[in-house]
Predict the structure.
Amino acid sequence: MSLTLIERPASDSVIIDNLRKRGYKATSQRIAICRLVLSSREHPTAQSIYRDVKRLHPTVSLATVYKTLQVLNEMRLIQQLPLPLSETRFDSNVDPHLNAVCLQCRGVTDVKDQTLSKVVSRAASKTKFKVTGQRFDLYGVCDKCARRSGITA
Amino acid sequence: MSLTLIERPASDSVIIDNLRKRGYKATSQRIAICRLVLSSREHPTAQSIYRDVKRLHPTVSLATVYKTLQVLNEMRLIQQLPLPLSETRFDSNVDPHLNAVCLQCRGVTDVKDQTLSKVVSRAASKTKFKVTGQRFDLYGVCDKCARRSGITA
DNA sequence: GTGCTTGCAAAGCGTTTGCAACGGA
DNA sequence: TCCGTTGCAAACGCTTTGCAAGCAC
């Protein structure tokens, strides 16, 4: 047995157990979609997940992708990130962290910050707000794009 | 002359100056929309702004509202807040703060937190990300709704 | 076998766009 | 006058929904 901490447990058996535990059927489409989303760090869109799932399930529909993402959202295993970029991104990191959103390449990168959980609990107690989720976004230009623009310009 | 700090300067002359300074024409529709959005603390939607502007300008169109909101966004006087609630909210507070989003009544309340600007600058220097904007959201249930549910349930 | 899930198509809905008429500067 | 802006309608694109067939349990 391994003692290594798996940061994002997305093995099929864990996924299947979680689905059944909540009364959802573990269909092969669902498992494939869950595996993709839960193991991704790219903050994928519904379309990009659809594209990837089709490799394994060529007949899968976009509607099934959306429905499965809703299920994962209800299970609190992912979070929706509607952005001012038309398409919603999905984040399998549901703990307090920063999303650095590059408005040039549209990339989204997680940034850890230990103080954010304190910010959440402080605000919750101050305002008596029952917090069930949170998102912290930074908008701007990532280093890679800044360098590229600098060279090009 | 007044020495009082106006928290949200939204007087017509300031709005007109700002528009002209950036090369935009100061039409009466635009001024009315700007005044409404910039003075609101309710995080209004395009529809709610449209409804309010129609009182002064019964013939105004929703398209004009959207176009003006884009102008204000470009001028960095407001911020778009796409939420997982179908409609985008608009926030005239562009400084780092928390938006407490009640998933029950759909209300959005600003919460001040002095440490957020430090969080932003720390993340920016750590990741070399050029920050041009930010948003920090809490999702859950506000105190008012929690009490109401408690009594009802 | 039962009832949830799938896949297809169509609908829904917030937002954007094209364009002729209008009106600030 | 000139060119940006308005208002209308249509288009757009992401997301959701209805429904018959399929499949998990």
Q: What stands out?
A: Helices of chain B lie at 12-21, 28-39, 46-56, 62-74, 116-127, 143-152. The longest helix of chain B spans residues 62-74. Residues 23-25, 27, 29-30, 59-64, 67, 86 of chain B lie near DNA strand D (CB under 10 Å from a C1'). The two ends of chain B are 55 Å apart (CA to CA).
